[in-house]
């Protein structure tokens, strides 16, 4: 085949966590695409280890959750302030200082996961390929241009130097915090800015694993003259991060590792590097046919909520179903304009919440506007999504709330309830991943939807909710209402109180929330 003639509906640039997640979600939804990544494998440099229930829900939908080891339901990775790993333990630290941990395992069928980024990425890579994704590693984007019809990317196979062009209907830029694509588009960023550069050291130390018996896996090292952060990947590998005053030699790094361990233990240095702690959010997440996702769109410090990659994987989930509909001409491209409207406020709130937390507030100083502090579950499962494709996400609603405080409001994540469906006990969210679904307990709404291309689930018949979590209460519909849930599990519409079931009304609602092709 003439390489110059390659065309794909979607081209993804960057094959780290977010690009690979986008590839997996697109492949699962049957959207042909090409992903290019300049490296062949995953970076060894220590990065993400913490993944939220919400992220695991996306992986559950795409069929790979069972391959990712989860923490026990309701649990989180525990952290303590210590003199050293082997030395005195001063106190256990909460994920959000000043906030009680509210996880009881009820809000989601999934628990969070503690898995090193370089172990998760191969799972995503393999799963995306198995679902038909065209992943090209060792391939670099040299330049990109777009016009009203297409995006054209110039690529180079790094080991041979061969260059070729790929055209695409849409491009996802998952090319990281420095995003050359974002820079080329001239999209500026706002936020706390670059705050500091940290040194990290990854090492193997089997002996240190003996100190994990108490269940603490992350350690704030607090010694006179040395503050650091020590953690484990739970596979014999450990990382130490600290602010470096001047370039350290290997001998100095080894001495600091020993200081953090607090006992003479044998260890092997694997790699060492630097990373920038920064809070920067792009002014817009798209330009024409190009969409920024992950760190390209929002650089967030690795807070205890693990907002960085989790927010990016959520971007990819949001984009995948919209691209699916637009590529299949089921929706107008205007549906894709809702991406910035929906995702930027979510990223911005995460930025603000990071610096509203006492442990990060010190980095931004007094100029920072104080914000109410939302709990971890509110931020992970209870953030509100607003755009023109969601009807009735009332301006009076808070931007986030604990999932138990929501009840079917448009813009919220459809709640998880263990329900009976076709004789099986499954999560309600498992029924809400493929297409738009109308949920109601009133057969008149199902009848009204009968001639629309809209799946319906009749509570009490198709799906049975438990008595203590009745559908009408959980989704706030009352006895005779209905909701429509999008393929990403967000409630897009809820009937007004006492609304009369009507096919014309439903058709008008569907036109607005799906932005159909006309
Ligand atoms: C110490 C640390 C701890 C963290 N902990 C967590 C955590 O616990 N939870 C969490 O959610 N997040 C965490 N993060 C953040 C997380 O690592 C990042 O958010 C995540 O890596 C972003 O993924 P990405 O795919 O958007 O970008 P990146 O991981 O930066 O990947 C961008 C990719 O694009 C490729 N690329 C760039 N330019 C080109 C080009 N021209 N051609 C081809 N390929 C290109 C690069 O090679 C790279 O592979 C942590 C980060 C750090 C530094």
Tell me what you see in this structure.
By secondary structure, the protein is of the alpha+beta class. Helices cover 25% and strands 28% of the residues. It contains 12 helices and 25 strands. Strands 1, 2, 7, 8, 9, 10, 16 and 17 form an 8-stranded mixed β-sheet that branches. Helix 1 packs parallel to helix 3 and helix 1 packs parallel to helix 6. The longest helix has 23 residues. The radius of gyration is 24 Å and the shape is globular. The site of flavin-adenine dinucleotide (FAD) has 34 residues, from helix 1, strand 2, strand 8 and helix 6.
Mind sketching the topology for me?
Blueprint: E1 6-13, H1 17-28, E2 33-37, E3 50-51, H2 53-61, E4 78-82, E5 89-93, E6 113-114, H3 117-130, E7 134-137, E8 139-146, E9 151-157, E10 163-173, H4 180-185, E11 189-204, E12 216-223, E13 226-232, E14 237-243, H5 250-261, E15 268-282, E16 286-287, E17 290-292, E18 298-299, H6 307-327, H7 334-356, H8 358-361, H9 376-381, E19 418-421, E20 424-427, E21 437-440, H10 443-449, E22 455-458, E23 463-464, H11 471-474, E24 482-485, E25 491-494, H12 503-514
Parallel strand pairs: 1-2, 1-10, 2-7, 4-12, 10-17, 21-22
Antiparallel strand pairs: 3-6, 4-5, 8-9, 9-10, 11-14, 11-15, 12-13, 13-14, 15-18, 16-17, 19-20, 19-23, 21-24, 24-25
Helix pairs in contact: 1-3, 1-6, 6-7, 10-12
Bound molecules: flavin-adenine dinucleotide.
């Amino acid at each position: 085949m003439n390489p110059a003639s390659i065309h794909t509906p979607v081209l993804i640039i960057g094959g780290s966590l977010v690009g690979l997640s986008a590839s997996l979600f697109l492949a699962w939804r049957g959207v042909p695409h090409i992903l290019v990544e300049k490296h062949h494998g995953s970076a060894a440099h220590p990065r993400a280890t913490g993944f939220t229930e919400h992220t695991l829900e996306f992986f559950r939908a795409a069929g790979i959750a069972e391959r990712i080891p989860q923490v026990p339901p309701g649990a989180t990775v525990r952290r303590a302030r210590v003199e050293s790993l082997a030395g005195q333990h001063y106190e256990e630290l909460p994920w959000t200082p000043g906030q009680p941990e509210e996880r009881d395992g009820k809000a989601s069928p999934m628990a969070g996961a503690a898995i090193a980024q370089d172990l998760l990425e191969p799972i995503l890579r393999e799963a995306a390929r198995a679902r038909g994704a065209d992943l090209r590693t060792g391939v670099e984007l040299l330049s990109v241009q777009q016009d009203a019809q297409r995006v054209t990317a110039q690529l180079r196979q790094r080991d041979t130097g061969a260059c070729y062009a790929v055209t695409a209907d849409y491009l996802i830029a998952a090319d990281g915090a420095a995003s050359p694509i974002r820079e080329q588009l001239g999209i500026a960023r706002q936020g706390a800015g670059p705050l500091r550069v940290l040194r990290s050291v990854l090492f193997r130390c089997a002996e240190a694993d003996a100190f994990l018996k108490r269940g603490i896996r992350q350690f704030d090292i607090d010694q006179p003259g040395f503050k650091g952060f020590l953690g484990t990947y739970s596979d014999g590998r450990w990382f130490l991060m600290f602010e470096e005053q001047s370039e350290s030699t290997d001998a100095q790094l080894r001495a600091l590792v020993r200081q953090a361990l607090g006992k003479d233990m044998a260890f092997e240095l694997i790699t060492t590097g630097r990373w920038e702690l920064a809070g920067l959010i792009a002014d817009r997440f798209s330009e024409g046919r190009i969409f920024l996702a992950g760190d390209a769109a929002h650089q967030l410090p690795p807070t205890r909520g693990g907002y960085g990659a989790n927010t990016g994987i959520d971007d990819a989930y949001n984009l995948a179903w919209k691209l699916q509909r637009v590529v299949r001409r089921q929706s107008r491209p205007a549906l894709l304009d809702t991406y910035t409207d929906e995702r930027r406020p979510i990223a911005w709130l995460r930025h603000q919440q990071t610096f509203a937390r006492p442990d990060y507030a010190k980095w931004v100083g007094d100029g920072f506007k104080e914000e109410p502090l939302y709990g971890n579950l509110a931020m992970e499962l209870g953030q509100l999504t607003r755009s023109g494709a969601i009807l009735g996400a009332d301006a009076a609603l808070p931007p986030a709330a604990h999932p138990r405080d929501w009840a079917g409001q448009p813009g919220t994540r459809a709640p998880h309830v263990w329900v009976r469906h076709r004789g099986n006990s499954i999560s309600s969210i498992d029924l809400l991943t493929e297409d738009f679904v109308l949920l109601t307990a009133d057969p008149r709404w199902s009848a009204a939807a009968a001639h629309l291309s809209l799946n319906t689930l009749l509570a009490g018949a198709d799906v049975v909710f438990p008595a203590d979590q009745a559908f009408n209460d959980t989704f706030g519909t009352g006895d005779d209402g209905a909701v429509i849930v999008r393929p990403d599990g967000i409630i897009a519409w809820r009937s007004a109180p006492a609304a009369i079931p009507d096919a014309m009304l439903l058709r008008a609602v569907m036109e607005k929330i799906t932005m159909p092709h006309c």
